[in-house]
Amino acid sequence: MPATLKRLAIIGVGLIGGSIGLAARRRRLAEEIVGVVRSESSGRRAMECGAVDSATTNLETAVAKADVVVVCTPVSQVAGHLLQAASACPQSALLTDAGSTKQRIVADTEAGLAKLGAAPSFVGSHPLAGDHRTGPESARHDLLEGRRVVVTPSENSAADAVDRTQQFWRSLGAETVEMSPADHDRALSHTSHLPHLIAAAVATATPSEALPLTATGWRDHTRVAAGDPALWRDILLANRGYVIAALNEFEETIGDFRQAIADRDGEKLQHLLDQGRQRRDVVGD
Amino acid sequence: MPATLKRLAIIGVGLIGGSIGLAARRRRLAEEIVGVVRSESSGRRAMECGAVDSATTNLETAVAKADVVVVCTPVSQVAGHLLQAASACPQSALLTDAGSTKQRIVADTEAGLAKLGAAPSFVGSHPLAGDHRTGPESARHDLLEGRRVVVTPSENSAADAVDRTQQFWRSLGAETVEMSPADHDRALSHTSHLPHLIAAAVATATPSEALPLTATGWRDHTRVAAGDPALWRDILLANRGYVIAALNEFEETIGDFRQAIADRDGEKLQHLLDQGRQRRDVVGD
Lengths: 285, 285
Fold this sequence. Notes:
The structure is a homodimer. Helix content of chain A is 52%, strand content 14%. Chain A has 11 helices and 9 strands. In chain A, the strands form 2 sheets. Chain A has a 6-stranded parallel β-sheet, sandwiched between helices. In chain A, helix 4 (75-88) runs parallel beside helix 5 (103-116), helix 7 (181-205) crosses helix 10 (240-262) and helix 10 packs antiparallel against helix 11. At the A-B interface, helix 7, helix 8, helix 9, helix 10 and helix 11 of A face helix 7, helix 8, helix 9, helix 10 and helix 11 of B.
């Protein structure tokens, strides 16, 4: 990847896409940053937060002269946007994305690219950044700084394209880690998708009249449930198999807790709590 | 309660007890603040963080001339310390505590006080403050500021003692809310105890190799699991009935999520996520 890109095209300028734009502008990563948006009003919002030099609803025009195209739309739309971009961008361009699940996106995109014949390179990615907020107004130039981006090549990925993808994210201040789409989806079912649905279930199961008695613990524990339900529906369904497997493991553990409490088995209960704390402490506050 | 107390005795000078001491000193609530500690070294720590004027391992001496005694030890020790204080403090003193569960503490304490015959007034309390950290080093003079303290009178409590208890917490900057010990324990099983055991179970069920892929969501969701396992063992066992009932309600909700994911029922899943978000949004970030 050249030190400076001619054009970076960001498809979907929300929290992640906007933060990529802000970081790229601040680091002078590209001569031109073009955002692809759904509507004129979202284009105005993307421009106002300074994430892109220009915004358009026309994907084909935006990617026409792009060196790098990064798709930051909801997971159910990522493969479609990647394939749309692949048909309109230079053959030399690199395509990547920021979707929270990878197996289906990578499989669908590679299947589509194979039908196109000659096509630009694609390597899937997932930046482990962002939170429950959405929209370009929440974007920050340092959102990716020091954060991990998982780059998920398949057996079809060219080594050169994987390198370029890693360099792209590193040039935005992120660290990269490489793993297969399946390994990514299995890990994320535990670290992201399961916590989301558990948080939503804990919030739902809290009676309204108890809400005034919540404190930091409940607020931290359930915060992620404030995320966009439509986005999360798609993520949970896209990673259905691993999410259910993670839920099964969680239910087994919860069963142990339940038994220890029901049996008034203080020693067992403390051991279980200890295990949880040790696992938690590895990660840091 | 007089504008200024002669002596405030704090039994157990950790995060909560230490924060009460810091707030009381800053607000000149008492002429003298005495901390009761387990050992000389914990006394030194309490003195070093400025939470108390003096520290002693002798509970009887500390409470001898106290106007207010607040017990901030682990829930399994609270009733014992309250009764020990009741035998040694002036009849005019007010006794309260900061325990996270209330039914058993209030019942055990009142049963013990009844045996004493003439005894000082006791009203149970629970400040909804604090986090997973422990020890006087984590204490903050503003920990209670604007936070809710649940005051839990029983049918045996004198109105005057309830008033004094409310005034004590308000004079430290907290808001008070009054409810029965049972109502408190039922609400807290949802807002505090269930999230704790769920967080520990989610942390435990996360495979070690996935931990490097955790981000803000997992960290927020599981943070509370970093709390002291021995303290939480006692809390969960003391509130066993309500905790199991809350766990049952949670499991029903999780069952709905599981079914919607297994059935690929996007509409149902989005509805469930929406419910969770709405409940979460009531509380604010």
